[in-house]
Specification:
The structure is a homodimer of 701-residue chains. With 701 residues, chain A is α/β, with parallel strands linked by helices. Chain A contains 27 helices and 19 strands. Chain A has an eight-stranded parallel barrel with strand order 8-9-12-13-14-15-16-17, surrounded by five helices. In chain A, strands 1, 2, 3, 4, 5, 6 and 7 form a seven-stranded mixed beta sheet that branches. In chain A, α5 runs parallel beside α7 and α23 packs antiparallel against α24.
Chain lengths: 701, 701
């Protein structure tokens, strides 16, 4: 009985902590079938449609620059692939089309790839043609992505709805960081993710280029850095130039990070003389552990870094260099008598010593014409005001930094590798309503950045961690603050996810590969039914429970599972709706899903049996059936309009506890929803619960 | 009635032309569950198994060379990924393990990457450990692939069966050509296909580097060749060196082809002065058409090509350079008075002029230390004996060439782009039984090569044309001649196909992408059921029926369909078996499949309706249902043990004619099988048809 109370209490808690729904977009637009993401600032839907035919063509007027021509040509290709129609026009050039073209793009100036450049655009589509106008080329690029997302079809053909859109971003920094140090990510991984970023209007690619596992960029000045410090996996300067250009073509800035003074093993392998403790150093094959640091008392450290950063400042055109600055425990400094002596008498703490180190670095980098960015640890008294703070440990540093005159970027709450559902990042507003900040202070919050740390991903799985969640974060950073309806977001996210995979991103297709490899079978549908209702354990649980290395296979069921299991998301939504408005149609959907899960089980068990790698997942398969039966029982009670017996509910407690246990580093994500049906059955009526909200099985994560 | 006779007659014909089955491998081995491909020369299965555990490790003895260490390390990674077990050993080095290691690889010498090098190996596995012995490193590489293919699992774990294998290839040239000129294929496409080649013991990668649509390799001597002649898509010298090394690491030779004197547009764009007709020349965006040629009467042509080939001879370490030589119509030569004058009086035909051109080229290339290869058109009187002939137009030139003292390679019958089923290439023996050739003459048939011309593929679809068919050809070229049972080949091919996709080949996963893009939906199972029983029209039918360009979207249902639709292959096999031995189990399998096709239809129609790009496929969906019903009726008649009424059979004629019609450039591939059931029903008994053979819906292709 105590346990049941616990269950009910937990449920009540999850209600209380659920976010308030806010819907800034009229229902008519939400139901229009336009799967735009990020949702534009202003949208008006009109009658009519622009039919897509072989004659579709594009003309560009004004002074657009090459970026717009190339993007328009890519648009032609994308529209062709998604409709199967081959256009007469293949390439968009300066003299292409004319004012009669079906899409006219009018751009006043090419624009410069920098933060704060005008990214606004206006898109007018009627049944005759479409006009995209933008002040500069970057705005046109963003508008072309909106145009592509508007493509729809029905039995009569492919078309774009007649619509009027005026749009501009809410924040100027809309970033994605990829950690290419822990697990190196080859050029094609970066290319396809740049395409994905462009599709959802992200504009900063932050590459975490050095860490204890490797330094990933060729230095011509210090070739030993990759020679000894990279296990052969790094970007050549030719490759990084290609990446920078590829991103630039799509209106995306590439910001390099070199993580200092700690996280420094990969440097110290070839330069142990610059370390705070004696070497030799070897590249880490594991994660976490001690964080060796440069010796800040050694003048050679600065001469070395000065030359290195000068080379990198020339290589990367962006006006920013990220110098890391995180997680320096200071242990090596405390243990080094020479460093302790160096600190006397003025430098009173390791934090102050790090600030001095950062200051010296900043001075050199500023002299190279760049501004520094650092993780929020660098926010210490004395830090120069030009430094940009990236807040990862919490939001407090975000506001503290802007109050102290720094510019900031929010990362806390946007860690993709922790595998929280997309709704989490989506609802994580850098400046929530009610934040007390002055107007100019507020403007120093540049935006936010999704972070993809790579301890537990390889090139084959990384996309499935970034996408589609990063698209939800992209909307948070671009769209008006009041666009925040979660169910509607998921509906669009699901559609956008398919468009993203059309860019050769692998987040959907590679799940099948993993499942087929795990089973040795071609037909994995029954396993997919399970995977679609589980997700990996969240946060740092998986890291904590396994001894992972850079060689770990990362090919288990939790690598195939994703943060956004669609069947669970859909089921939770149906239950939400049913608990609020218990109508027969929704009940039928819920019942059908529960019955499918039960019916799927025999095939699933057959698939799991001969595949030892899948045996750990058996408890989840069993719980899925048990809870599905429970859910059906609950619905039966609800249909009878009498409260379910307490004894029955008591018997469910063990089943719920069991179903909440992680297995194979994954968890079932339909447990809370079934529990809500049980609670509803206990109440014994079908009256609507107006205060009910979306539950998402957070327990234990 | 006339039509029915036609149908029955066509069916009888297809029986008569069916290949004879030959089985060189005992049934016990065929049923052992070892999905080896190519099947080794000698296999003996023993009792017992080597269990795969965390302690699995590898030691290398002898003088193996770096290739073997790297391949052994890759084996560790592959075994890890496929079992989910992380081994204690991560990297195989000279000092790894010892004689106690679970796998000991003993190699006498590293070996040289060249044709004719000893590729034999011996693999002994018992319940304690495994020993792989090879004369040289190349043999060890081949043996490691066999080891990986032996991995199996059951509820008790992952293991390798106790087995004794002695193996060597039948032919020394086992090639794959990829045309990177018509549709350029980026480095990662080549890399993943090299991995696929290595997995099935192919050893020559032939790159078709120039054609009318582009020249795809950077020349430092003539940078204008790609500057003007490549639309920006080509391999830099750094990239091609990487490809060569990547292939070398896997025991694969890279042979470059520069197609001359015709197919020359991409050269003539920047060097119109070397053409046989006045320029300017522009890169083709279409395929076929005229084939402009170099001017063989111009001494500048040879100075230019001499410098170019010297550069390429240094770039590519392989001792061969392929100079093309195909499809020169001679029209430009005939129309050029200067060339006609040059031919007087000694050169009496365009063929003779081409031979003189080839001779001059060969002399230069031989002086650079390379041997030339050319398509079979170059086999003309006067051709130097060192030239290797690649027979593509038929097998006659293969035997003619060896009789004249040339070495030869068979390509005819191995054209992957024509999308014939894997069984075709599989049964295409370079030296069929009964071929009258002397022993040394026979030895001049070096082997064969699968050809992937790229008019109708893009990087996202090319793998699905190469694989898994190329694996069947690989077996033809490696395994003993009498390994040729088609049903058993398909059984193994299906398993090997999954292993190949584990190497990041995309032939399976990208089908889902295309189907999702075509429907805009995530759930495409009902469409997949259809795609699994259709395949693209074969030969040059699709090219003939559409006006394709390098910009064509290539994203329709025929791009998603493959040459080997598994459901159809399986169904045909069941019907084959049933017609020969009408047993109830097989009948039940056939009935279940027919009923599934019928049951699938409503969902399929719902999916097709809102997707105009799928509308052309409707007739196939309808025919699938119609024929499934017919098949069930036929089985009903057969069960009644009375001949079906002629009137019923007559009514089916229209249905069969309709079902044989291509739609959306694809065809249903279960039509013949259903027809065989109808014919069987007409005969009215369940007696076995001992002369029956595999039908594969060749009609109309």
């Amino acid at each position: 009985m105590a346990k049941l109370i616990l269950v009910v209490f937990a449920f009540a808690l999850s209600l209380a902590s659920a976010p308030a729904s806010a819907e800034g977009v009229p229902t008519s637009l939400q139901q229009s079938g336009m799967n735009l993401m990020p949702w534009p600032a202003h949208v008006r839907l009109h009658e009519g449609r622009l039919a897509l035919t072989q004659q579709f063509d594009i003309a560009v007027t004004g002074h657009p620059g090459q970026r717009v021509y190339d993007a328009a040509t890519r648009l032609l290709q994308s529209l062709q692939r998604r409709s199967g129609i081959e256009f007469d026009q293949h390439v968009v050039k300066a003299r292409s089309g004319g004012e009669q073209a079906e899409l006219v793009i009018d751009v006043r100036r090419p624009g410069v790839l920098k933060l704060g450049e005008d990214e606004s655009y206006r898109l007018l589509i009627d049944s005759g043609h479409a006009v995209l106008t933008a002040e500069d080329g970057l705005g046109a690029l963003r508008g072309l992505q909106t145009f592509l997302q508007l493509l729809q079809s029905d039995p009569n053909g492919y078309y774009l709805p007649a619509v009027e859109i005026r749009d501009q971003p809410r924040f100027e920094w809309r970033g994605l960081m990829i950690d290419v140090a822990r697990h190196f990510q080859p050029v094609d991984v970066i290319e396809r993710n740049i395409r994905g970023m462009a599709a959802v209007k992200l504009n900063v690619l932050h590459l975490h280029l050095s860490d204890n596992q490797g330094l990933r960029i060729q230095s011509n000045v210090f070739p030993e850095l990759t020679g000894l410090g990279s296990n052969g996996q790094y970007y050549t300067q030719t490759q990084i130039k290609h990446i920078i250009q590829y991103a630039d073509d799509r209106g995306i800035i590439v910001v390099p990070e070199f993580d200092l003074p700690a996280h420094a093993v990969s440097w110290l392998v070839s330069h142990p003389e610059l370390a705070s403790a004696p070497g030799p150093y070897h590249l880490y094959t594991r994660f976490g552990g001690k964080n060796p640091a440069f010796d800040p008392s050694n003048p050679e450290t600065y001469r070395f870094l000065g030359r290195f950063f000068k080379e990198m400042a020339n290589l990367f055109p962006a006006p920013y260099i990220h110098i890391g600055g995180d997680e320096n425990s200071g242990a090596q400094w405390s243990n080094n008598p020479a460093i302790q002596a160096y600190m006397q008498p003025a430098i009173t703490s390791n934090a102050a010593l790090q600030t001095q180190f950062i200051q010296k670095l900043a001075a050199m980098i500023t002299a190279d014409g760049k501004q520094i960015i650092g993780w929020d640890e660098i926010l210490q008294p004395g830090l120069e005001k030009g430094a940009i703070i990236q807040s990862w440990r919490g939001k407090e540093s975000l506001y503290q930094a802007v109050r102290e005159g720094h510019r900031t970027i929010l990362s806390n709450g946007y860690y993709l590798d922790l595998l929280y559902p997309a709704s989490d990042g989506y609802l994580n507003d850098p400046i929530p309503p009610g934040t007390h900040l002055g107007r100019s202070t507020r403007r120093n919050i540049l935006g936010g950045e999704a972070e993809m740390w790579s301890e537990l991903v390889r090139p084959e799985t990384i996309d499935s961690r970034i996408w589609p969640s990063a698209a939800a974060i992209a909307e948070r950073l671009w769209s008006p603050q009041d666009v925040r309806d979660v169910a509607w977001m998921y509906k669009r996210l699901r559609a956008v996810n398919l468009q993203l995979e059309g860019l050769c991103l692998t987040q959907i297709r590679n799940q099948g590969v993993l499942l087929r490899q795990l089973t040795g079978q071609r037909e994995v549908e029954s396993l997919r039914v399970l995977v679609d209702v589980i997700s990996p354990v969240r946060g740092y649980q998986r890291m904590a429970s396994g001894d992972y290395t850079i060689y770990s296979p990362l090919a288990s069921i939790t690598d195939a599972a994703t943060a956004n299991p669609w069947a669970a998301i859909q089921f939770n939504e149906w239950v939400d709706r049913f608990v609020q408005h218990p109508d027969p149609d929704t009940e039928q959907q819920i019942r059908a899903q529960l019955e499918q899960w039960i019916a799927n089980d025999p095939a699933l068990e057959t698939l799991i049996q001969p595949s030892p790698a899948l045996h750990p997942v058996k408890p989840l398969a069993q719980s899925l059936v048990t809870l599905s039966r429970l859910g059906l029982q609950a619905l039966d009670y609800i249909d009878q309009k009498q409260p379910a017996p307490q004894a029955w509910a008591r018997q469910t407690t063990t089943d719920f506890l069991q179903a909440r246990e992680p297995a194979a580093a994954t968890k079932l994500r339909m447990v809370d929803a079934v529990e809500r049906l049980v609670v509803m059955a206990l109440k014994g009526d079908r009256s609507s619960e107006t205060d009910a909200e979306h539950g998402d099985d957070r327990d234990g994560d």
